[in-house]
Every structure is written in structure tokens, then in C-alpha cells.
Amino acid sequence: MARDPRYDILFEPIKLGPKVARNRMFQASHCTGAGSERPGFQAHHRAIKADGGWAVVGTEYCAVAPEAETTPYISARLWDEGDVRNLTLLTEMAHDRGALARVQLYYSALNNGGLESRMHGVRKSPSHSGADSGMLLAGREMSTQEIREVQGYFVRAARLARDAGFDIVEINITINSLPHQFLLPAFNLRTDEYGGSLENRARFSIELLEQVREAVGHDTAVTARYAVDTLDAPYGLGDLGIRVEGDGGGFMQLADYLVDMWDLVVGWTDGGDRVGPARTHPENWAADVVRRARKFSEKPIGCVGRLTNPDTMVEMIRSGQCDVISAARPTIADPFIPNKIEEGRIQDIRECIGCNICLARFEIGGAPIVCTQNATVGEEFRRGWHPEKFSKARNADSSVLIVGAGPAGMECARVLGERGMSSVHLVDSSRAIGGHVRHVSELPGLREWARVIDYRQIQLDKLKNVEVISGRHLTKQTVLEYGADIVIVATGSAWSPVGMNSLTHAPVDDADATTQSHVLTPDQVFAGKQLGKKVVVYDLDGYFMAASLAERFADEDRTVTLVTRFAATAPYTEYTLEQSRLVRRLRESGVGILNNKVITTVSPSFATLVDVWDDSSTALESDSVVLVTQRFPEESLFVDLRDDPAALRRARIGAVYRTGDCAVPGQIADAVFEGHRLAREIDSPHPEHPLPYIRERRLINATESDYTLDSATIAIEG
Questions:
Q1: How far is CA 200 from the centre of its chain?
Q2: Could you give all domains of the chain from N- to C-terminal order, each with its CATH number?
Q3: Average pLDDT of the chain?
Q4: What is the pTM of this model?
């Protein structure tokens, strides 16, 4: 099927100074955990996007000198010839696939952890200032000589980038970067020619851009990733920042002659504006600011906004909002969006759900990227996985029964179908597939999480060797009688009805949701168990569930108190950039929040709370207590089958595996990955054990053959 003509504008080439991009869909710079130290991971991850049709691909932010490194957070680096060698693989693979390669040069002024280099004493800033990262960092005011030194680091890195084959050198003028901090009154208190007026505060960046342009010559494009508006308090800097109609747009006018494109972002470090989560930020949330920035530049403009809908992309360009669709998370969830638009396969786009699990891995500190929607992210090199290509299984003549159609079961069935198994039956006792994701996506702000189900439903419907059977409960006996060669149990997990958890390692006294009407689990809430008017939500989980339920209950006009052992509310949401707005929404909804408390006992009319620091006890009036504590595998079917090998032999079942939460409860991304991995490795000697993957580490006397999947260096004996 050919592409719909209404999308033609997305495929128009666009000129960026001396370079021409083949279309208007660019991968925005984003972190992966690869850096320059994992060249295979870095290159193959970006090359998949080039395969998928993105016109520009490239690195995350790239430190220009040892004093700018951000350990524990992983960035690319361009310091020396070794970095050139490693990043050249990226540019070569991008070029082989028809894409331009971009590197984003970065100097982190205050928030560079520098835990590897230990260059604490040379950390520089426009003015003496402390960091807001919680890492006890500070920067000293730069002398004029030091300004020249840092500008020289950028020039050196730009030349190295050109040597590595990069087509585009992008200067990071966004949150926490030195050029941006020179622009911000919050950080620039100087009284010399680099402080005071906008022209003076812009001087550092103007000089830097001039020097970089001269260094790279006439055959390399120079662009800017620029935070044009740092927003109002409480999520922004207010008068201490820059605004699009003021100095934000004013800087664009001053520097416009020096850049070949502006890639605009909006926001400050708090509130998630720079990487807006679906809970609080709709698609193209920065449209108004970007439209207002348009008048300050005569150069192409790109912007992000979790852009997965091609109709939205077209409208953005036609309306003049921007010239380029710049995407990070959408390229992670589906590297093949451009090709699918080109081929008229809009329904096959695997849309980002805006959960920000990808970002959370970086915020935690350097772990490789993951994605809820795309299990192959980060595995392109080390496991050799391609998001759109599947080899035929060596045991494809086998029939497979999957019990449970949650995220793991759906993904496992999809991949087994793609791998050509003779017959795959996906059976679930519920009337609709999706497992707990179907309920989660009904919580406030999480509607887009239903895309986990929608994408897989569409793909499963297309696979002729896959049959989805809903509304059928299978027991051990019916599984044995089913006639499958392989059985995979993906029956998920359930919340503890007695409040067992990993913090107190004990149940809550006098609480049992299986027998008491005033005690509930999230599963029971979703199943329709009745709540009272005064509800206590007890959170020992720390992610989205308790806070989202509390918000839902408040929306139902109940009196709600969220009680948690954690010092912060929903602490994991700090990594996904949801926490500040989530807590504000809870408070605005009237939800009471009590931190550093444990519930010791529950009665029909109150819960007893104990403060973890002084052991003081209080009674909190309640009609219902919802225990969001710990999940346990729903594993009884798997255990019954596994522990009866004689029955399996009689039924001619060759193997029984479990996957997803049925093995170990985790995030949705974990369940999708586990289902995907099992299906990818269903024809391995022991599919229950993951195959070894390539480890990009220094090996003494290594050769390239040591970094292949069949290398003896990664074989695990045992």
C-alpha cells in the first residue's frame, strides 16, 4: 500500500545549511546508556532508526571535556581519538542507511556529577552557584581565560565530530548546560561583558557558535538544541529564567545567523516539561510556545512533543508551527514510524505511551534504555534483535498454548506468531485481552497506556497462525487435554491481600482483603468491590498505582488519605518526571498525604499509623483501606504442571514455561520484555534461561570476533 498523499509534506527534503535531509522526520538527541564506551550498542540503536526512515539520527548529549562528564549519568564523549573511533561506527551505519548523523555537544556546568573524572575543583559556572541535583555540587565563577578554555573544548570536540563523520554538530543550549546558564539570570550574576543585558548574557553562546562554525568549515551543519522558555513557577524559573516573548526569543534573533536549525524544547528541570509524560502532557504540548518562537527566526525549526500521530505532524508543519518533526520517545517505541507512514501502514505504528520508563533508566543513573512498547530497544547489538524482523523458529512445527493475555502473554504470542510457529493459542479467562493494563489505563492520566494492548491486538489479528480465545478459564486438567506441544503460563500477579511488602517484611495486623469488606487490594477495586466514603490508600509500592487510585477516589468525591512508608510520595515517579505535578494534583484534589508512616493495624473504622522516626502512634478514621503493598506471582497453574512430569509426558507436552509477572512481578516494560525474550529464544536449548548477550567491555588481547553472539568469550558454562 502506498502512502496517503496527505502525508507527502513529511517526506519533502529539507536543507540544513550545507546538508540536505531526506525528509522532515528527525530523531532528537536522546540518552540510551550507550555513550562512547559501548560503540556497538550506540551505533546499532541509531542505525535501526535510520533503517526505519528517520532522516537524521545521532547521539545523546556529548561531553566535550573530562570536566564536563556526568557520571553516574551516561553521555557520549568526544575528547580524543578513541572516542572518534568508537563514534565513527555510528556515522558509518547511519550513512549506509541514507541518514544524516548528528552529535550534540554539551558542557554541564553545575550538575555534572563528575564521579569518574573527580574534576570537582575545576567545575565551572557563569557565577558562583550550587546545583539543584541533590549531589552536593557547586560551580565557581569562570574567569575570561576559562571562558576561552571551555569554548576551546567545544571547538576541539567539533573538529573530532567532523573527523568521526558527523554531518551535523548540535550545540546544547538547554537545561543545565553552560551556554544556557549564561542566558539565565538565576545563574548569571556577572557584571562584566558576559553578564547583565541579554546581549552580554548571550555573548558566550554567540562566540561559541562563531568558533564552532569556523572550526567545522562549510561542509558541516551547525544547529542548536535550545530551551526557549523556562516557564513560570512552580515548574519553571519565572523572572529568573527566560521567556519566549522576552529574552528567550530575543536570543534566537541574536544567534539566528549562526545556526542552520533550531530544535526547540520548553521547560526547566521540574515538572517534566522537557520530556512530558502522558499523565500530564498531551501530544504536542509545547505548540503554543513554539508557534510564538517562530517569528524570531528565519531558519528551520524543529520541536518535540511525543509525536506519534502523522496527522498531528502534518498539521504542525502546514500551520507553520515548525519545519521538522523532532522525536525522541516515538523513535524508541517505534523506530519505523516514517517507513510505516510511507508504506500506508499507519495502523502498525507502535505508539509511545508516555510512561517515561525510558527516561527513568537514565535518571536512575546510566542503566541501558528500556521501553514498555518496544522490547528490542537496547538489544539491537547485544542480542541481535530487530524490532521488525524475526527468524523462523527451528521448532516452528510445534503448537503453543499461552495461558494469560496480559502484556507478557500478548507479546509472547505476537513474536511466536511472527516466528512461524505452526499454531499459537492465546487464552485468557477475561472477556478482553490486556490483563491488568486494561484496568491501569482507566486510571487518571493513563489512558495512553492502553496502546500496549491496542498495538498487540492489531498485530495478533493479522497473524493467521495465532488464535486469541477470551472468556475461557483453563485448569491443569484442561491444559493437559488441550493438545499443545509447548505450554507458556503468563497468568500475571496479584496484590497481597494482607499487606505483605518488601519494606516491613510483614503483613498488616488484622488486615485480610479476602475476608474483610473494609480492606481491599487494587485487584478488588478494579473488580468492583465496594469502597466506603473515607478511604486510606496504603502505599508500600512507590510507583503509580497508589497515587493514581488516590486521585481516582478523590474524583469520586471520597475523603482520601495516602499513607506511605516512603519519605516522598510515589518516589519512582521522580525518575519518570511525574512526581511534582502528580503530588500537586493530589493535593489540589483534597488527598491528604502522610509520609514516613506505617499502618500497624486495621479495623472497620480506623487504621493505626506509627511514625517511623519517633514511633508515635495515631488513629486515622477510615471506612476502607486499600493495600498497595507487594505483588505475588499467580503461579499455581505453572507449579501444578511443572511438578507433574508424568502427566506432561502422557499429554505429550514437551515443555512448560512461565513468563512475565507469573515469574517475577515487575513493571509493564519488564513483562513485555520477558514475553518477547521467551518467544525469541523458544528454540534455544533452555528457553527458560536467557541466552548470553554481547558485553562491550575491554578484553585483553581482544579481536572483533570477541564481540559477536557466537564468541566463546560470552559463553556461560553450567
A1: 37
A2: 5-14+23-365 (3.20.20.70), 399-492+634-704 (3.40.50.720), 497-632 (3.50.50.60)
A3: 95
A4: 0.96
